[in-house]
Automatic annotation (TrEMBL):
Protein name per Swiss-Prot or TrEMBL: Substrate-binding domain-containing protein
Annotated ranges, domain Periplasmic binding protein: 55-311
Keyword annotations: Signal
Source organism (scientific name): Hoeflea algicola
InterPro entries named in the record: Peripla_BP_I (IPR028082), SBP_2_dom (IPR025997), TAT_signal (IPR006311)
Amino acid sequence: MSITRRFVLTLAGISAAALMTSPVFADQAADAARTAKAAEMVDTTQFKKEGPLKVGVSAGYLANSWVVFALQHVYWEASLHPEVESVVVTDASFNPAKQVSDIEDLMRQDIDLLVYWPVDDASVEDVLKRAVAAGIPTVQAGGGFTDSEGTIANAYISQYKLGEMVARQLMADIGGKGKIVAMLPIPGTTAAVEQLEALETVLKEFPEVELLSAEYGDWNRGKAKQITENLLQRFPTITGVYSPAGQMSLGMVEAFDEAGRSDEVTFSPGDEYNGWLKWVAANNQGGAVTFPTRAGQVALQVGLEILKGNEVPRGTAVPSEYVSPADIGTLVSPDAPDDWWASALPAEFLPKQ
């Protein structure tokens, strides 16, 4: 298999409508509606193709280590299928307009399948519709679930369920009372919207917990640290931190440490970012709720089923799991860099350190 590397990635976003009138149940109902929509089966006979196959991967960005590992899973899965002749990857570098151009360029290269991570769902919707109309199936990978017309299928991680697991563990760890801050990813993305929905829904069960502020750190350790420094100046007491992304959690830890206030705060579980896992192992706190990088592999598996003309679910969930601090040794790699992710990738497909 020959691999052409021109890097790319993204994260998906959807707007969820509440289906129940009670505000306490609104977000659970929206999540249930998404799950039901994901279970719908899609007829893909129109996309059936014989090999050799060219796979296009449009990434909204590759500046994030999770994305790098997810892409390596795409390469690994591609290597297992002789009919996949090449994988062409583009990197939009957080630029929605560039991602549209990237996808148009991939279409001109006669790709047979498009796997994508969007910078912004709305920006790419039109070009995805054009890809589908041209006979190119599209699979969204690694973000939340989207049922837009231009997306044939999703390999998705439920940001709502992940956020709920993180929130409930934090509530247990702080004893259901106190003052907390939240650190969320890029504003407007599925991850940010659904994680906040999950937190706010859980907080309705804990009236003695006050959400002081919800901030957006863009999955960036340095930005999360800077924001936290400001939060520490604004709030004399912070009991807990809700931060599902380990990379941002680690930046927040650094800010609390430098302010001499680490003893006052309890951190929620993060994800499998290795720097965060090292901190959990050293401090016996927080744990992890996994955000599996194998979502990239699952997306390609789904895409290849589409190219066989087989029915596929509109959404294939890649489930998150809670790993306690006591069990974090199953995930952490003490000798690997912080920008590393727990995965089952074979050695030959691991990113270069």
